[in-house]
Design a protein that fits this description.
By secondary structure, the chain is mainly alpha-helical. It contains 14 helices and 8 strands. It has a 3-stranded antiparallel β-sheet with strand order 1-2-3, with helices on one face. A 3-stranded antiparallel β-sheet has the order 4-5-8, with no helix packed on it. Strands 6-7 form a two-stranded antiparallel sheet. The termini are far apart.
Length: about 400
């Protein structure tokens, strides 16, 4: 990688001097110029001024070289790239979080990337967010981008300004006061009980064992796909029928299959499961032990439940691809893998679990998240309870 030359220049501007340092190139191969104004003290001789301005230039060059250097006239895109680079170095953000922020770049840079950081207003940001809530914003569906996605873009812009503040550039954050646009959530596509029973019958009859076990776990627990894919044999308490979630397995565009931590602190959890789940996992264990014995030195013992032919972790998206083909092959309605989590949560509510119990099972950070997603389920149970109360009291009014 070519070393950047931090070349400095200065020029007289009115009563002061403008210092310039050339600081490499941005993502579009345009030269980055950092600037700073220095004003000499009154009473300095011309010779003293020239000597001091040259000293100030050297100090400024060192300041830029030891970066990341920020100034009020830096463009948003340049600052954002510095932020993403620093975030990757510090390791405070998860890999997938950084990748999601990088996915925000194209739209954001098109809207405000060319603007100076100190000249972006709340109106600029609000107009950008408004554009995301217009029909056609979602390039895949042609519809609006969800409120959640709008918040991701707004968070990206705000994070860049917070990064600028960390580097002693004190600007008002124009994201303050910006409102996301409420977009109606699409209806959750979930099997009803009859459809789920039919799916399980076909699964047990025709599916390879690893997919049979994966979807049995998905149906009878509230685990996310990534949490199931991260399961290892040490996480299964066969004696007490308990499964513990302690890691996830996900796909990264930059790094391939990676192991990470659950989405929230409450994502680290243990759940007691019925015998049908444990029996299925035991069956998978027997099959895997045979594979291990057969392959010998070619076996890579990762300890994972869901693996490729040689013991390496199965690709995180493999169950999704298999489910699509299976539904098409068996001519049944297709739902996504995440819908099995919704089915389980809905069933828990239907069978009388309260919001705290359901939230704990799901691994949500807050019960409010559970209520927001499953309001219709709790409302349905409440309505049934009211009807049962009415029937039990047998009150005849207006007859």
């Amino acid at each position: 990688m070519k070393e950047v030359d931090f070349i400095g220049r200065y020029e007289k501007r009115g009563k002061g001097y403008r210092l310039k340092v050339y600081n490499g190139y941005d993502a579009n191969h345009n030269q980055i110029v950092e600037t700073k104004t220095w004003i000499p003290d009154s009473g300095m001789t011309e010779k003293q001024i020239i000597k001091e301005v040259e000293r100030q230039l050297v100090l400024f060059e060192e300041e830029v070289k030891n970066g990341p250097y920020v100034s009020a006239n830096i463009k948003f895109e340049t600052m954002a790239e510095k932020f993403l680079e620093q975030a990757a170095l510090e390791g405070n953000l998860k890999q997938l979080t950084i990748e999601r922020l990088k996915d925000c770049r194209e739209r954001t840079y098109k809207a405000i990337g060319h603007l100076r950081l100190d000249r972006i207003t709340t109106a600029h940001i609000q107009n950008f967010i408004n554009s995301l809530a217009q029909d056609g914003a979602n390039k895949q569906t042609g519809k609006k981008l969800s409120t959640k996605t709008q918040k991701l873009y707004l968070g990206f812009i705000s994070d860049v300004y917070k990064f600028a503040a960390r580097n002693n550039l004190f600007l008002n954050n124009p994201c303050k006061g910006v409102n996301t646009i409420k977009v109606p959530k699409k209806e959750i596509n979930v099997y009803n009980v009859e459809e789920m029973q039919n799916f399980l019958n076909l699964l047990c009859e025709k599916a390879p064992l690893k997919y049979k076990v994966f979807f049995i776990i998905a149906v009878f627990t509230s685990f996310r796909k990534a949490e199931i894919m991260g399961l290892e044999w040490e996480d299964i308490d066969f004696e007490n029928n308990v499964i513990t979630i302690g890691r996830i397995s996900v796909y990264s565009k930059e790094q391939g299959t990676i192991t990470g931590t659950p989405k929230t602190k409450k994502g680290f959890r243990s759940l007691k499961v019925p015998d049908v789940v444990i029996n299925a996992i035991l069956e998978l264990k027997e099959e895997q032990d045979k594979m291990k014995s057969k392959l010998g030195d070619r076996w890579n013992d990762t300890g994972r439940l869901f693996i490729a032919w040689n013991g390496n972790p199965m690709g995180p998206d493999t169950p999704r691809h298999w489910l699509e083909k299976f539904c098409e092959q068996e001519k049944i309605r297709h739902v996504n893998v995440h819908s099995f989590r919704h089915f389980n949560a809905s069933a828990l509510i239907e069978y009388g679990c309260n919001v705290n119990q359901v939230s704990t099972s799901l691994g949500h950070a807050q019960t409010s998240t559970t209520l927001n997603i499953y309001t219709h389920c709790f409302d349905k149970v409440l309505a049934k309870s009211s009807e049962a109360l009415s029937d039990s009291l047998n009150l005849n009014v207006g007859g």
